[in-house]
User: Which sequence fits this backbone?
C-alpha cells in the first residue's frame, strides 16, 4: 500500500510533463499541425539553407484558441540577422517585407499575415532572405507541400469555442 502512494507524485509529474508536449494533429507533406496550451500551429523546417544553420529554423502559422492571434506568421532563421538588414519573404513570385531581429521574423501587421497565409496556401515554394552580422547571405528554402492542409488543421484545432 505504501508503494502505491509513492507512485502518485511520479504519475502526476509525468502527466504534467506530457501536457506540456505538443499534440500532433497531423503531418501533410513537409508541414505538420500541432496543438499545445491553447495555441495551434502549422510548422515546417527548411528543406535547405544557405550556409550553416545555428539551431532549429522553422516557419509557422499560429492560431490561439482565445482569439488573440489567427494566422500569425513566425519564422526562426537559420542564423542571426544583421541589425538593420531587410527581411524578405518570397512565396513563388510574391515578395513580402518582414520585421524582426536576431533569428526571429514576423509579418509587419495582421493584413500582411493574412496575405502571406493566402500565398502559402496556394504556393509551392517559399524562401526568406537577409544578411548575417558578418554580411553573409542567409536564405532558408521551404517546400509548401502540405502547408494548406496543415494551416487548415491548426485553424480548426484552435477555433474559438
Assistant:
Amino acid at each position: 500500500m505504501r508503494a502505491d502512494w509513492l507512485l502518485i507524485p511520479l504519475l502526476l509529474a509525468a502527466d504534467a510533463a506530457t501536457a506540456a508536449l505538443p499534440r500532433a494533429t497531423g503531418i501533410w507533406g513537409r508541414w505538420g499541425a500541432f496543438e499545445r496550451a491553447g495555441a495551434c500551429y502549422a510548422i515546417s523546417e527548411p528543406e535547405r539553407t544557405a550556409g550553416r544553420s545555428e539551431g532549429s529554423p522553422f516557419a509557422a502559422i499560429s492560431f490561439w484558441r482565445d482569439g488573440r492571434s489567427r494566422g500569425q506568421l513566425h519564422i526562426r532563421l537559420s542564423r542571426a540577422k544583421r541589425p538593420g538588414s531587410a527581411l524578405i519573404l518570397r512565396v513563388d513570385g510574391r515578395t513580402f517585407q518582414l520585421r524582426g531581429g536576431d533569428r526571429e521574423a514576423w509579418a509587419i501587421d495582421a493584413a500582411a499575415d493574412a496575405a502571406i497565409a493566402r500565398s502559402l496556401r496556394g504556393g509551392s515554394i517559399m524562401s526568406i532572405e537577409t544578411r548575417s552580422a558578418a554580411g553573409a547571405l542567409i536564405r532558408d528554402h521551404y517546400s509548401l507541400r502540405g502547408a494548406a492542409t496543415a494551416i487548415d488543421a491548426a485553424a480548426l484545432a484552435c477555433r474559438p469555442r
